[in-house]
Amino acid sequence: MPLRKLSYSVLLALAVVSGLALFFVAQLRFNYNFNDFYPAGDPDLDYYQQYSARFGNDNDYVLLGLEAPAGQTVFEPRFLTRVDSLTRFIQRRRHVTQVSSPTTATNPVVEGLGVFNIPYLRPQEPSRRAQDSALVYRTPGLVGNLISKDARAVTILFQTSPNLSKPPGDSLLAAVRTELARQNFPESQYHMAGKMVAQSVFVDRLQMELMVFMSLSVVLVTGLLWLTFRTWWGVVLPLVVVLGAILWGLGLMSACGVSIDLMTALLPVMLFVVGMSDTIHIITRYVTELGYGASKKDSLLIALKESGFGSGLSALTTSIGFFTLMTSTIRPIYNFGLFTGISVLLTFALSFTLLPAMLLLLRKPQLRVPREQGHSWDGVLGNLFRRVLARRQWVVAISALLLIGSVASASRIRINSALLDDLSKNDPVKLDFQFFERQFAGVRPVELDLKPAAGRSIYDLAVLRETEEIETYLTKQFGLNFVASPVTLVKSVRKALNGGLLSEYRLPDSEAELRRITSKIKLFRKKPEFKALVLPDGTEGRLTGRMPDVGSIRADKLNASFRVFLRDNIDPNVLQTRLTGSANLIDKNNENLTLNMITGMTIDIVMVTLIVLALFRSLRMTLVVLIPNLVPILIVAGVMGLAGVSMKVSTSIIFTIAFGIAVDDTIHFISKLKLTLLKEPNLFKAVRHTYLLAGKAVIVTSLILVGGFSTLIFSSFDGTFYVGLLIGLTLLFGVVAELTLLPILILAFYRHKPKEIRQPVPALGG
């Protein structure tokens, strides 16, 4: 038969494409690159990349914190001996470029033509313990940086090769942990922090959570499909279609060289639950026509004809919702929006090719509930329809009150993020980072580029004095607990030239003294800290520091005050400065979040408006469609404000995605209403008939969507948790609005007579 041959041809062609997709999926890799979250194409990013090429990245390091045994201080000789052994072990590791440790910190003294580096700590000489510890606490830059204020912990900081990828990074961390165990450091007494540590943990968790969420989603959706259709094919066929679309989407992503990261890891789960909509609408309509006694072929043609228009529109609106995320300057969000949007369209294509082909090749199903016995869905939906319209004043009043309260609460939402926002507060990795916040300088880097004015050098006394003034402000007003700059180098050399006395750790008093100091700087230029702070020709310098991660709101205020200080107190004819660094770029992302979200939502709403206008050519119907879908968005925004959930990179995508998905059911409803109006001129009867016809699919798809997104609440990443929770709530409120507000608004906007609302609803087809 032609249709059967066509079905086999379709299946063969799709199998070939799926095989190609599988080939690319096998090459897909997981990755978490911190740098990907910088604002792509931003001038500040270009500036930082050039800056880091000269001085190195400000986050290519690992902090290793070691706690002394209970009842001891870090100055115990046995503890320091273990610290020194561990330090030397790390120094020998591949990809380690520099190590700073309490046991390698030295007080340089220049005598004659040579430099003698006198160690601050000498564990092999216990008699000097009191003298050494007293010197450490008097020396700037040691306490709070390498040694905690309470002398209960030390830090070993080791720089790594630039942008070290996960495999060598994992090997390095594993080697360090093995050595820690060999040195008898229990896990409770050491802490690790840094980009490489977060990268390792994030990628491992992404892999685990992707499998867990997909498994939960498959179990949940399978159960709901079985409860809905009570047939094996009603479960298997939608799963085949959606899993095929996921395979194609991931294959395309891999072919384009995109890895799975914190955002694109959501693609399979999101597509799995979103992609079910088209298949459920088709199968529901197919089963309904079979119930009327139509043949398999006729039932399928009717289902495709009536579902095609609505499914096509809903696929378009959903994909637009994802495509609008491409307005983001953050590459992972851009990729997530692009490939998820494409995958939604692929799901639509498979729903109208693969699904019909499989249905045609199957035998005509034997329905479990014969048509003449009636369907329980008709009675439930008919009763709900009657009750909603009979109490329409209450529905509208409650909706209005919720809307007013939500708008007021939503005004409390703030854009705020921290460096490890996506980890829950009790996560071991976050607790380790907090250890360094509590005991040491912190983990948030601060970078300031220093450029002397034309004709000057970074070693000019006027330039150094301006730099010192900046240092003073940053330590006293900004909150830096550790700072290093060319001033640090000059002060250190001056101290070294004067016998290593702490009283000599200051800037020179005259140009003549400065010239004597700078002439000796060549003795220190090979030291890594010198190369990291000043260019060899003295034309540019770097001020670097660390502070606690205060969050983007506080950081923005600090940065604004700092810029005012620089403008009012630093002479640009002497020194020019520019705030840069990885933390500064992450902060800049937050400045763009609101604009990106508003832009995405605006594009989404405009596109949906144009689609509805083209469909109904009615401005009133456009409002009817928008109101039930914007109300849930505003209610969830109110929930965010009430719960104190901040807007950040991960949560900024919620509203755009939720609106694009939520409008699907409305599109299906009004497209069926348009078809019904061709046969039924009475608007009330047409709305009632559509309500009964589309209600089951609307409820089932919404349950699958809410359930699917709810699986994300088990994530250890806060961002993923909130995406699942808030989108799930939006879709839950959306189906309630769909079944209550939508029919009321349609009839109210068209001024239907209220007495007809109270008429009993006859059985469908009766």
UniProtKB/TrEMBL annotation:
InterPro entries: MMPL_dom, Mycobact_MmpL, SSD. It is a multi-pass membrane protein. Its main location: membrane. Keywords: Cell membrane, Membrane, Transmembrane, Transmembrane helix. Residues 239-361 form the SSD domain. It comes from the Bacteria. GO terms for cellular component: plasma membrane. It is found in: Cell membrane. The chain crosses the membrane at residues 210-229, 236-260, 266-287, 308-330, 336-362, 394-413, 593-616, 623-643, 649-670, 691-715, 721-750. PANTHER family: MEMBRANE PROTEIN MJ1562-RELATED (PTHR33406), MEMBRANE PROTEIN YDFJ (PTHR33406:SF13). This is MMPL family transporter.
